[in-house]
């Protein structure tokens, strides 16, 4: 009899990971069972004919060109980022994790009113030419929390708590060392005094502000918008050098 492979994916129920969360009585086995039953029903499978089941968990990957801001406040920003090797070759299929603060200087996780809703963040994958393209909002500078020992230390050393505006990126690709970095907005007044000393000249991005008009993705914008084109270079995975 001919063999066949069935590839499918379903989304499991979601809930907050705490003791009294809505799913706290559901065991991992039950979650897995529900997922397999959903795949059985969707494909009208006779499970008696199955030999092996291989299953795992994945993070959802965002669409190229998506608006990752999802209603976060701020001026629109269009980003085109390219991931390359040291030799300059584009890296296809690289995982690009993006997160940033909104126009009020807050991350989504700092807004209790959002509940489990996430915004101004995404996980994307580079295309065949190494690009990820997305729409978001221009980040703004924000102060780190000062209600603990960090605040006392800053006060004692006479330093301000501000970080210049930036977008975080974490990039991973097979055969390359992971890159965790951020890109800062050129001209931010805190570039020379970042409270956590994270700024390097190579990390300052060329954010260009445009008047209302046509955005890089063809959208007719009735308000000013920003454009950032940014290259990232991944070093080879050191382990593979030995
Ligand atoms: Fe940050």
CATH superfamily of the largest domain, by name, is Aromatic compound dioxygenase
Query: What is the CATH-assigned architecture of the largest domain?
Result: Sandwich
| Count of separate DSSP helical elements | 2
Helix content: under 10%
Which small-molecule species are bound to the chains here? Answer: fe (ii) ion
SS-based structural class? mainly beta
H/E element order: HEEEEEHEEEEEEEE
Question: Order of strands across the widest beta sheet?
Answer: 3-2-7-8-9
Shape: globular
Instruction: Pick out the low-confidence regions.
Output: none
Explain the layout of strands and helices.
Layout: H1 28-42, E1 76-85, E2 95-100, E3 121-125, E4 131-137, E5 142-143, H2 149-157, E6 162-163, E7 166-172, E8 179-185, E9 204-205, E10 207-210, E11 213-214, E12 220-221, E13 225-234
Parallel strand pairs: 1-13, 8-9
Antiparallel strand pairs: 1-4, 2-3, 2-7, 5-6, 7-8, 10-13, 11-12
The site of fe (ii) ion has 2 residues, from strand 7.
Task: Give a structural overview.
There is one protein chain. The chain has 242 residues and is mainly β. It folds into two domains: 1-58, no CATH class; 76-241, Aromatic compound dioxygenase (Protocatechuate 3,4-Dioxygenase, subunit A), CATH 2.60.130.10. 10% of the residues lie in helices and 27% in strands. The chain contains two helices and 13 strands. Strands 3-2-7-8-9 form a five-stranded mixed beta sheet, with no helix packed on it. A hairpin with a 5-residue loop joins β11 (213-214) and β12 (220-221). The longest helix has 15 residues, at 28-42. The protein starts with 27 loop residues before the first helix and ends in an 8-residue tail after the last strand. The model has no long low-confidence stretch (mean pLDDT 91). It binds fe (ii) ion. The site of fe (ii) ion has 2 residues, from β7.
């Amino acid at each position: 009899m001919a063999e066949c492979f069935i590839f499918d994916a379903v989304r499991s129920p979601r809930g907050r990971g705490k003791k009294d969360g809505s799913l706290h009585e559901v065991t991992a086995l039950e979650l897995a069972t529900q997922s397999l039953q959903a795949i059985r029903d969707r494909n009208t499978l006779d499970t008696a004919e199955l030999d092996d089941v291989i299953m795992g968990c994945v993070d959802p990957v965002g669409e190229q060109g998506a608006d990752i801001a999802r209603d976060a406040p701020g001026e629109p920003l269009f980003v085109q980022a390219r991931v390359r090797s040291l030799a300059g070759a584009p890296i296809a299929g690289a995982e690009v994790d993006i997160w940033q603060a909104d126009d009020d200087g807050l991350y989504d996780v700092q807004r209790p009113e959002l509940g489990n809703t996430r915004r101004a963040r995404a996980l994307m994958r580079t295309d065949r030419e190494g690009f990820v393209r997305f729409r978001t909002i221009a980040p703004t500078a924000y102060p780190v929390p000062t209600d603990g020992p960090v605040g006392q230390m800053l006060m004692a050393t006479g330093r301000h708590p501000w970080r210049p505006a930036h977008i975080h990126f974490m990039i991973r690709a097979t055969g390359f060392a992971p890159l965790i970095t951020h890109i800062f907005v050129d001209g931010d007044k805190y570039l020379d005094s970042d409270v956590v000393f994270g700024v390097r000249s190579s990390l300052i991005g060329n954010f260009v502000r445009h008047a209302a008009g046509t955005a890089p993705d063809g959208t007719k914008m009735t308000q000013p918008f920003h454009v950032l084109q940014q290259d990232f270079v991944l070093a080879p995975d050191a382990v593979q050098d030995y």
